[in-house]
Backbone:
C-alpha cells in the first residue's frame, strides 16, 4: 500500500521571453523551397530545437501561460458549481460518480495541496460524494460502468493523497475510507469482468457483451488502483488487455463492440487502447505501436473530431503523452489553441455531456502540462 | 444559308421597296404617342406624398442621375426631389434636368374613351368627342377632364378600339406565351416579355384572322439579333416558311422562303448598342402578302409571296438569337385588306367605318343630333357620327407647331402632353399645353416620365468650386450619381458630416450616415500599357464628363487590384495592409501574440491587432510574384485534415517562394514560424511579404465591421497609395477628419485624395485588392457514392452506367493462387465481377451476399470473380480466411482494370452476359444488391438456353 505521495509545489513559470531566446541562424543561400511546406529540407528554416529552446526544456519545465489561465478558470468554475454534497447536480447533461471522479481529478491535478490548499474542501466533498454512493455489498457505484470506472479512477488518484482523517465529520459512523471504497470498487469491476464472456465491460455490470469505450473507463480505473497499491489480479488486467488486442487492427484502428464492422476511425477508442497498453506496461505490444503510430500521423485530424470531441481529447492527451512525449508536445499546442477558443466566460467548457463533464475533461486534457496526477506518470 | 442565295436580291429589293407607293388607314402614325402600351396602375389616385415610389429617377443633363421621389414644387423652374440617400431634399434647376422616369406598375388597364386624339408636337390622349365647332374639338377625358383642342394643332382623331377590330393590345406579361423547349429564359419585365438568353423563343396563339394589322415595338440594350415570325403555329417547318422579320448583321430585313421561291427586303439598318424599332405590319395570310411601314408612316416593304398552299396560322413567334430583346408593344387589329390610295396622302380626309375614304374636313359635330358636317371644296355634306372611324387633318405648315414647351409628360395609358409646367402640388401637375385651350390640372397617378424639352439655354456663370467630384451611391451600379462638391459640415445625429451640393441643385443636403458608395475626385491613372505580346489596343474615344469617368472607374478596381501598393509614399520602410484595405507606410518592428508593432508617421498607433491585418511588406519594394491558377489554388487550399489546425500566415520570399504556417513571433532578425506543429526560424531578411490568411473567415459566420448606421465610415485613397479608414466627423476647409478604431485620429486633405469610399463600399473595394484575394479555401469534400438501387422508381436498377450495354473491356490478371485469368476466356458464361478491397467496409459487407447469390446459380454457368484493388496477397489471404469467403480473387495490382471499369467507388459489382457484354453495374452494395443481382442473372438465364 502506498503511504503518501509528496505533493510538489505548484510550478509557477514566468512567461518566457521567446524572442530573446531566438537567434538567427546562418542559412544556405537560395533556400526557400518552391514546394509548400518543405522549406526546412533545404535548410532555410531550421527546427527551433536547435536554436530556440534550451535542450533541457523537454518536459513541463515551461507551462504555457494559456494553460495556467484556462485551467485556473476551469477550476474556479468547478469549485463554484459544486454542491455541498460534493456533486454537480446543476451542470446539465451527465451527473453521477463518474463526473464527480473526473472533477475530483481536476482539483487533485491542480497542484494545490489537497488537504490544506485552496480546494481542499472541494476535494473532500467530492471524495465523500463518491464514497457515499458505493454499494457496500456489491461495490458498484451506480449509474453505469462508465461512472464506476471514472469514480474508481478518481478514488485511486485520491488514495494516499487525501488524508482520510479529515474526510468525515468526527462523529460520523459507517463511512468508508478511501482505501476501503477503492477496494470495493475494484472488487465490483473484477466480478463484472469475470461474468463477462469477453473479459471486458459494458454499461451494465451484468452485461454479456463489451465495448472498448466502457472497458477503457473501468480498466484505467483498475490500473490506477493497482498503481496506487490496491491488489488487482494480473489475470484480470491480462484478460482485458487481450480483449483490446483483439479489437485493435494492424493499422492501429480500434473497434467498438462485437466483431467485424467496427473499424472506423475513432480517435477516442484508439487513444483508449493506446493508453491502457501503456499504463498496463505493455509498450512491447505491436498493437500499442500501431495505435501510437496511427495517432502520431494524424495529429491535426483529431483535435476537432465531431464525435465526442472532449472525451476524445481527454484520452488522446494521455495516450500521446504516454506514447511519444515529443508528439504530445506538438499536439498539446494545438489543444491549447483549440480549447482557448471554446472556453466559456465563466470558465466552463461546453460539452454534450454537460458543463461539469466538459470542464473536467478539457481541464484534464490540459493537466498533462502539470502532470501532477499519479496516472500521468510515465 | 439564305443570305448566300439572296446576295442579289437584297439590292434589288431595297431599291424596289423605296418605290412602292403606300397609303392606308394605318400609316398616319407620324405623331402617334405610346398609346398602344396601355398600361396604367389599377388603383385609385392618391397624392404622391402618401405613396412614395422610390424607384423614380431624375436624370441630369450632365449625365448624372438620382433615385428618389418627386416632391411638390411651386414652379416649374425648380424641381424638388427627395432621395433616401440624403437627409433633405434637393432643388434641381429645370434646365439642368434631362428627364424624370417613374416606375412602371404591375397592373394593366386600357386607355379609356373611344377616341384617340393626336396633336401637333407629339401630344395625344384618349377620351370622348363631344362636339366640333369653330373653336375646335370639344373633348372629355378621364385624364384631363373637359378640354378644347385648338384646331390648328389637331392632326388626327380616330376610334382606337373600333368594335371587334382590336384583337390584342399589349403586351400584358408572359401569360399566353409559351417558351419553346419548355425553358424559362424569358421573364415578365413590367408586363413586357424580355430575355437576354441566347437561342430562346416565345410563341403565342392570337387566333389571328387571315388579315391583320399589327403595330409593334421591340427594344434591346446590346446588339439586336432576333427573328420575328408572323402567322405561325408552333411547328418548325411553318415557322421557316412564314414571313420573318430578322436581323442580318446590322440590318433589319423582311424575308420569306417558300417551296421554290424566296424574297427579301431590307427594312432599315440598326446600330449596335441600345436601340429600338417600331414598325407597322399589314399581313394577309390568304394572299401571302405583307406590308411594312415605319412608325412615321414611311413605307418599307410590300412583299407578295404566296406559298403553293397558303394557310392561315394563328400566332406570332419571337426568337432571340443573341444579346437581348424586349417586346415593348404589340397591337393587333383586324384589317379589311383594303388600302387607301396614294392620292389620299396630303389631303384632309375622313375614314368611315366601312373602309371608305372621304376627302374633306369635318367642320361641325353636334352630339345632340349625332350629325357631322363634312366640307370639301366648298361643298358640305352630312355624315352620321357613328360612321366616322377617323378624322385626319393636315396641319403640316401650321406655325402653332413651333410653340416652345418646357416639359413633355407621359402617362402609362398613352397620354402625352407637353407644355409649360406651372406647379406640382397635391399629386397633380399644372400644365399649360398649347394644343389645349384650357390650363390643365392633371393627376400624377400613372405618370411614366417627364422630359425637359428646352435644355440649357444660358451658360452657367457661377464659377465651379475647386474640388468638384462625382458622388456614386452605391459604388457599383449606382442609383445616384451626382457631380458636385462637399460643403463644410460636422456630423450630427441622423446625418453624416458629408454635405453634398450637386452642381445641378441650388441647395446642398447631408448624406444619411449608413450610406455606401464613393466620391471620386480624380480619375484613377490609366492602366499600365500592355507590353508587346498582345495585339495593339484601339484607343477608346474620350467622351469626357461622367461617361469617361465611369469607364475609368470600371478599370480602376482592376488597376488598384493589380497594384495594391503601386504608388508608394517615399522612403517608406514597409507597408501594413489592413483587412479594410487601409495601406500604411510604416516600419514594422515586431510581431507577437498581440499583433504587429509598427512605427509610422501617419498615426501614433504602435500596435495593430492581428485580426485587422491582411498583409505586411517588410521593406522590399518587389511585389508578390505571379502564380498560375493551379499553383495559387494549391497554395491556398486547406486540406481537410488541417481544418482544425489551419495555417494563419503565408510567407513570401524575395525569390518568389511561399511557405504557409503560423507566425509565433518576429523580431528584427528572425521570424519564428510554426509549420505543421513544428517551430522553425526564418531570417527576416529572406521574407518580403507576410500575408495573414485569417482562416476564421472560412467559417460562415465570420464577422465584418459593417455599418452601425450611427457613423459614416470613410476610406480615403490618397494619390500616393496610402489608404486610411475612419469614421468621418467633420469636413472643414479641404480637410476631412475623424477617428479610426485602429489608427486613432485621422485627417485627410482632399487635395491629395483620389477617392473617398463610403460605408460598405470600403469592404467591397478591399475585397478587390491584391492581398485580400489571398484567401484560404477549404479542400473539396469527397462525395461518397451511396447508391442503393432505385427499385420501384426504376424498373431495372444498375443500368445507369455508360458501361452498360457495352462490351466488357477485356483484361488479364493473376489469381490469388497464381493462375492467370483472362476475361475473354469466360465467353459463354455469365460473369459477375466484384471490385473490392479489404479496407472497404461496404465491400466486406457486400461480398458474402454476392457470393451467396452467385452460388445459387453455380451449376448454370455463372462465375464470380472478386477483383481486388492494389493490395498484397498476404493481406487478401488473411481477410478471406477471416471472413471465410470462397471467391476467386483477381489481383489488380496496379489498379488498371479498376480504372478501365471506371471503378471510382467500391464495391462495384458488374454482371457480364454470355456474349461478353456488360448488362448491369451496381455501385455501393446495399441491402437490395443481392435481390437485384439475382434478378439480373435470372433474366439473362431466361433469355438464353441452358449452358450445356
Residues:
Amino acid at each position: 500500500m502506498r503511504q503518501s505521495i509528496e505533493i510538489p509545489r505548484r510550478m509557477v513559470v514566468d512567461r518566457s521571453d521567446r524572442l530573446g531566446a531566438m537567434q538567427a541562424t546562418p542559412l544556405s543561400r537560395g533556400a526557400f523551397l518552391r514546394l509548400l511546406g518543405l522549406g526546412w529540407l533545404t535548410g532555410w528554416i531550421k527546427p527551433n530545437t536547435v536554436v530556440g529552446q534550451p535542450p533541457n526544456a523537454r518536459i513541463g519545465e515551461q507551462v504555457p501561460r494559456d494553460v495556467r489561465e484556462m485551467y485556473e478558470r476551469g477550476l474556479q468554475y468547478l469549485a463554484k458549481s459544486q454542491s455541498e454534497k460534493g456533486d454537480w447536480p446543476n451542470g446539465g447533461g451527465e451527473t453521477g460518480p463518474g463526473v464527480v471522479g473526473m472533477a475530483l481529478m481536476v482539483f487533485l491535478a491542480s497542484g494545490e495541496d489537497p488537504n490544506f490548499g485552496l480546494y481542499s474542501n472541494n476535494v473532500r466533498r467530492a471524495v465523500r460524494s463518491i464514497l457515499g454512493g458505493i454499494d457496500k455489498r456489491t461495490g458498484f457505484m451506480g449509474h453505469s460502468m462508465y461512472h464506476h470506472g471514472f469514480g474508481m479512477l478518481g478514488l485511486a488518484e485520491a488514495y494516499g493523497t487525501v488524508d482520510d482523517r479529515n474526510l468525515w465529520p468526527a462523529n460520523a459512523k459507517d463511512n468508508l475510507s478511501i482505501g476501503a471504497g477503492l477496494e470495493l470498487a475494484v472488487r465490483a469491476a473484477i466480478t463484472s469482468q469475470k461474468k463477462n464472456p469477453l473479459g471486458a465491460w459494458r454499461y451494465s455490470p451484468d452485461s454479456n457483451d463489451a465495448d472498448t469505450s466502457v472497458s477503457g473507463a473501468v480498466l484505467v480505473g483498475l490500473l490506477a488502483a493497482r498503481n496506487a497499491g490496491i491488489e488487482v489480479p494480473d489475470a484480470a488486467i491480462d484478460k482485458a488487455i487481450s480483449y483490446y488486442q483483439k479489437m485493435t487492427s494492424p493499422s492501429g484502428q480500434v473497434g467498438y463492440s462485437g466483431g467485424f464492422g467496427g473499424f472506423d476511425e475513432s480517435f477516442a477508442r484508439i487513444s483508449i487502447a493506446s493508453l491502457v497498453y501503456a499504463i498496463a506496461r505493455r509498450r512491447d505490444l505491436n498493437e500499442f505501436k500501431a495505435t501510437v503510430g496511427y495517432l502520431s500521423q494524424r495529429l491535426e485530424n483529431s483535435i476537432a473530431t465531431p464525435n465526442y470531441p472532449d472525451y476524445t481529447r481527454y484520452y488522446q492527451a494521455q495516450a500521446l503523452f504516454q506514447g511519444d512525449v515529443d508528439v504530445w508536445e506538438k499536439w498539446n499546442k494545438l489543444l491549447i489553441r483549440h480549447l482557448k477558443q471554446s472556453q466559456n466566460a465563466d470558465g466552463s467548457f461546453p460539452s454534450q455531456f454537460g458543463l461539469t463533464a466538459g470542464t473536467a475533461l478539457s481541464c484534464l486534457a490540459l493537466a498533462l502540462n502539470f502532470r501532477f496526477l499519479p496516472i500521468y506518470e510515465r | 444559308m439564305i443570305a448566300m442565295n439572296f446576295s442579289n436580291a437584297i439590292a434589288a429589293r431595297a431599291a424596289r421597296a423605296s418605290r412602292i407607293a403606300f397609303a392606308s388607314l394605318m400609316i398616319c402614325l407620324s405623331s402617334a404617342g405610346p398609346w398602344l402600351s396601355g398600361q396604367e396602375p389599377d388603383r385609385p389616385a392618391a397624392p404622391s406624398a402618401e405613396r412614395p415610389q422610390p424607384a423614380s429617377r431624375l436624370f441630369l443633363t450632365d449625365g448624372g442621375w438620382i433615385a428618389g421621389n418627386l416632391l411638390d414644387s411651386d414652379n416649374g423652374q425648380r424641381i424638388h426631389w427627395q432621395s433616401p440617400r440624403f437627409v433633405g431634399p434637393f432643388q434641381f434647376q429645370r434646365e439642368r434636368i434631362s428627364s424624370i422616369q417613374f416606375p412602371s406598375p404591375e397592373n394593366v388597364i386600357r386607355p379609356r374613351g373611344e377616341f384617340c386624339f393626336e396633336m401637333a408636337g407629339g401630344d395625344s390622349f384618349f377620351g370622348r368627342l363631344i362636339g366640333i365647332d369653330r373653336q375646335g374639338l370639344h373633348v372629355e377625358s378621364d385624364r384631363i377632364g373637359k378640354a378644347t383642342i385648338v384646331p390648328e394643332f389637331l392632326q388626327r382623331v380616330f376610334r382606337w378600339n373600333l368594335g371587334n377590330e382590336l384583337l390584342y393590345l399589349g403586351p400584358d406579361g408572359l401569360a399566353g406565351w409559351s417558351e419553346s423547349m419548355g425553358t424559362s429564359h424569358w421573364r415578365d419585365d413590367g408586363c413586357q416579355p424580355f430575355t437576354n438568353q441566347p437561342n430562346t423563343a416565345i410563341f403565342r396563339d392570337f387566333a389571328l384572322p387571315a388579315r391583320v394589322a399589327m403595330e409593334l415595338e421591340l427594344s434591346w440594350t446590346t446588339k439586336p439579333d432576333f427573328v420575328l415570325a408572323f402567322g405561325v403555329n408552333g411547328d418548325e417547318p411553318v415557322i421557316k416558311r412564314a414571313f420573318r422579320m430578322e436581323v442580318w448583321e446590322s440590318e433589319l430585313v423582311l424575308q420569306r422562303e417558300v417551296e421554290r421561291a424566296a424574297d427579301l427586303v431590307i427594312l432599315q439598318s440598326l446600330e449596335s448598342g441600345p436601340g429600338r424599332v417600331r414598325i407597322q405590319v399589314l399581313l394577309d395570310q390568304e394572299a401571302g402578302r405583307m406590308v411594312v411601314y415605319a412608325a412615321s408612316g414611311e413605307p418599307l416593304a410590300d412583299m407578295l409571296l404566296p406559298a403553293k398552299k397558303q394557310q392561315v396560322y394563328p400566332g406570332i413567334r419571337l426568337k432571340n438569337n443573341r444579346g437581348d430583346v424586349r417586346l415593348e408593344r404589340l397591337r393587333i387589329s383586324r384589317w379589311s385588306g383594303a388600302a387607301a390610295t396614294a392620292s389620299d396622302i396630303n389631303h384632309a380626309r375622313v375614314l368611315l367605318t366601312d373602309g371608305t375614304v372621304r376627302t374633306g374636313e369635318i367642320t361641325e359635330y353636334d352630339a345632340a343630333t349625332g350629325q357631322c358636317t363634312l366640307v370639301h371644296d366648298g361643298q358640305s355634306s352630312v355624315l352620321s357620327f357613328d360612321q366616322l372611324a377617323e378624322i385626319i387633318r393636315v396641319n403640316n405648315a401650321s406655325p402653332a407647331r413651333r410653340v416652345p414647351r418646357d416639359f413633355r409628360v407621359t402617362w402609362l395609358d398613352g397620354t402625352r402632353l407637353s407644355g409649360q409646367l406651372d406647379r406640382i402640388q397635391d399629386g397633380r401637375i399644372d400644365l399649360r399645353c398649347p394644343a389645349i385651350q384650357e390650363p390643365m390640372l392633371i393627376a400624377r397617378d400613372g405618370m411614366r416620365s417627364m422630359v425637359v424639352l428646352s435644355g440649357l439655354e444660358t451658360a452657367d456663370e457661377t464659377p465651379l468650386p475647386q474640388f468638384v467630384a462625382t458622388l456614386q451611391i452605391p459604388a457599383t451600379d449606382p442609383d445616384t450619381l451626382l457631380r458636385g462638391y462637399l460643403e463644410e459640415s460636422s456630423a450630427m445625429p441622423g446625418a453624416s458630416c458629408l454635405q453634398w451640393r450637386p452642381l445641378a441643385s441650388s441647395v446642398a443636403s447631408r448624406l444619411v450616415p449608413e450610406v455606401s458608395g464613393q466620391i471620386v475626385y480624380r480619375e484613377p491613372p490609366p492602366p499600365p500599357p500592355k507590353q508587346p505580346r498582345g495585339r495593339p489596343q484601339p484607343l477608346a474615344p474620350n467622351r469626357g464628363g461622367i461617361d469617361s469617368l465611369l469607364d475609368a472607374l470600371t478599370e480602376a478596381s482592376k488597376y488598384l487590384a493589380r497594384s495594391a501598393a503601386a504608388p508608394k509614399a517615399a522612403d517608406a520602410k514597409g507597408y501594413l495592409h489592413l483587412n479594410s484595405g487601409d495601406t500604411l507606410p510604416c516600419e514594422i518592428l515586431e510581431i507577437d501574440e498581440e499583433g504587429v508593432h509598427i512605427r509610422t508617421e501617419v498615426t501614433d498607433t504602435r500596435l495593430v491587432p492581428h485580426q485587422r491585418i491582411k498583409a505586411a511588406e517588410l521593406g522590399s519594394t518587389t511585389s508578390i510574384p505571379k502564380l498560375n491558377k493551379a499553383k495559387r489554388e494549391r497554395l491556398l487550399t486547406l486540406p481537410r485534415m488541417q481544418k482544425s489546425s489551419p495555417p494563419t500566415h503565408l510567407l513570401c520570399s524575395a525569390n518568389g517562394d511561399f511557405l504557409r504556417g503560423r507566425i509565433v513571433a518576429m523580431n528584427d532578425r528572425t521570424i519564428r514560424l510554426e509549420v505543421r506543429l513544428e517551430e522553425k526560424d526564418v531570417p527576416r531578411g529572406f521574407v518580403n511579404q507576410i500575408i495573414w490568411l485569417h482562416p476564421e473567415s472560412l467559417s460562415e459566420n465570420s464577422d465584418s465591421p459593417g455599418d452601425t448606421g450611427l457613423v459614416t465610415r470613410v476610406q480615403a485613397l490618397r494619390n500616393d497609395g496610402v489608404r486610411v479608414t475612419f469614421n468621418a466627423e467633420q469636413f472643414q476647409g479641404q480637410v476631412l477628419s475623424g477617428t479610426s478604431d485602429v489608427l486613432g485620429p485621422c485627417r485627410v486633405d482632399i487635395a491629395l485624395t483620389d477617392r473617398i469610399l463610403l460605408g460598405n463600399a470600403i469592404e467591397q473595394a478591399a475585397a478587390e485588392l491584391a492581398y485580400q484575394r489571398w484567401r484560404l479555401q477549404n479542400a473539396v469534400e469527397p462525395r461518397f457514392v451511396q447508391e442503393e438501387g432505385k427499385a420501384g422508381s426504376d424498373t431495372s436498377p444498375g443500368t445507369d452506367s455508360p458501361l452498360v450495354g457495352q462490351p466488357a473491356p477485356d483484361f488479364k490478371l493473376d489469381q490469388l493462387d497464381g493462375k492467370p485469368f483472362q476475361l475473354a476466356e469466360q465467353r459463354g458464361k455469365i460473369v459477375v465481377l466484384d471490385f473490392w478491397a479489404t479496407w472497404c467496409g461496404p465491400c466486406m459487407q457486400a461480398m458474402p451476399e454476392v457470393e451467396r447469390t452467385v452460388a445459387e446459380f453455380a451449376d448454370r454457368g455463372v462465375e464470380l470473380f472478386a477483383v481486388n484493388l492494389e493490395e498484397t496477397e498476404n493481406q487478401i489471404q488473411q481477410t478471406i480466411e477471416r471472413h471465410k469467403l470462397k471467391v476467386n480473387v483477381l489481383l489488380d495490382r496496379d489498379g488498371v482494370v479498376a480504372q478501365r471499369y471506371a471503378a471510382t467507388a467500391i464495391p462495384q459489382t458488374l454482371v457480364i452476359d454470355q456474349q461478353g457484354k456488360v448488362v448491369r453495374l451496381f455501385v455501393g452494395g446495399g441491402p437490395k444488391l443481392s435481390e437485384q443481382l439475382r434478378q439480373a442473372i435470372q433474366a439473362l438465364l431466361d433469355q438464353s438456353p441452358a449452358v450445356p
